[in-house]
Amino acid sequence: xxETASRFFRVISHRSTAISREPINLTPPVERAILxxxxxxxxxxxxxxxxxxxxxxxxxxxxxxxxxxxxxxxLDRPHPGTYLGSGKVEELKQRIQELGATxxxxxxxxxxxxxxxxxxxxxxxxxxxxxLILDIFATRARSSExxxxxxxxxxxxxxxxxxRMWTHLEKMRGGIGMRGPGETQxxxxxxxxxxxxxxxxxxxxxxxxxxxxxxxxRHAHFRVALVGYTNxxxxxxxxxxxxxxxxxxxxxxxxxxxxxxxxxxxGDGYTVLLTDTVGFIRKLPHHLVASFRATLAxxxxxxxxxxxxxxxxxxxxxxxxxxxGVLNDLGLSSRPLTYVMNKMDAVPxxxxxxxxxxxxxxxxxxxxxSAVADGGLDTLTSSLRSSxxxxxxxxxxxIPASNGRLIAEVHRDGEVLEQRAAEEMLVLRAxxxxxxxxxxxxxxxxVIVTQAGMRPAAPVPAVSLP
Length: 466
What we know:
Blueprint: H1 4-14, E1 32-37, H2 45-63, E2 66-72, H3 86-99, E3 103-106, H4 112-122, E4 125-128, H5 129-140, H6 144-158, H7 162-165, H8 185-216, E5 223-228, H9 234-242, E6 260-267, E7 270-276, H10 286-291, H11 293-300, E8 304-310, H12 316-329, E9 337-342, H13 352-362, E10 367-368, H14 378-391, E11 394-400, H15 404-413, E12 415-422, E13 425-431, H16 434-442, E14 446-451
Parallel strand pairs: 1-2, 1-3, 3-4, 5-7, 5-8, 8-9, 9-10
Antiparallel strand pairs: 6-7, 11-13, 11-14, 12-13
């Protein structure tokens, strides 16, 4: 949760006071962070280190930390005790003293033992990429559902790390009413957290059932889900297409977490339900993906996925692979998907032709768009119309020429291909959706199917995640 869950998580991590409910300072001083990257040795490793550290720095900035330095080491394999080699850990300790750092952030996930051992040497709080992302999600969550999802992910991350995060684990509870064999504070806290995890999972199951009921009412609509790497411009696309200035947009990682759906008019009488989903990122904590199952169900139920890619980012191919990997883990790799290369306006002019050629070779039929340029989304709306058009049957609708209301309804809610008079009737050849067809038949119009539409892909069953 932005306040409760984040506060719970930070207090346990930093001062061990969540259960005791001691007063909490909600405006702590800015952390001075050193970033640590230790990739495996491979070709082009230096190139990847720079890009990954830059992304980690953006994550740290989003979380409110000030980056004061970096430390890198190429590894054949992580040290089982400290991840880094012993010499690098000593170098890290020295850098902390020189720079006055108050926090160390590793770009990779540490085991509980590794985090504990590094902290014992450097005498400074250590966190890994997964904990940093969880903390950002906690501060960004707005709806009660997102808050529960984030708290669940935090607690599942925290549970195996209690031994490192608490300072009073060997103490036994005692005193009046507590006499007897007793139990360690660690056992008490672990039991409380496990109980809270069970409650959150039950509540999220209720949320998922409620979402399923909501989705049942949307089956008559063509549903499109925006998926992609964080900060690829998904919210900007939704904001522009829906012409809704209230859609939150910010040039930061994980600006929005909650799914947002808007009905979008794409022209020629066609509308779609467009949903913006939570963004993905490299090394996304698996606890987080699992807890966001209900949110990501919007993508499972979509008739079409739009994979939005920041074409101006130098590592867009790696970002594409990350998102494709998560979609595969969610069982969505077989869903109809269109790649949308966004931010084409930000691609340097001298690189435009190379980017287009590279995309054409890797992902034929991709769309090139810009959410900020005039007419920059025209190719996207045209593609959506084509997708929706293929699903609608072509019909002949016979309406009395005097019934202007029904004739206007066909023009308003469908795509009229041809119109002719036949005695006192008007015959319209048009593409219409099921709701409009039902209303016309109920009103007495004669409707003849001349060409059936394509059936949309069946929803993907839910996938059990770790």
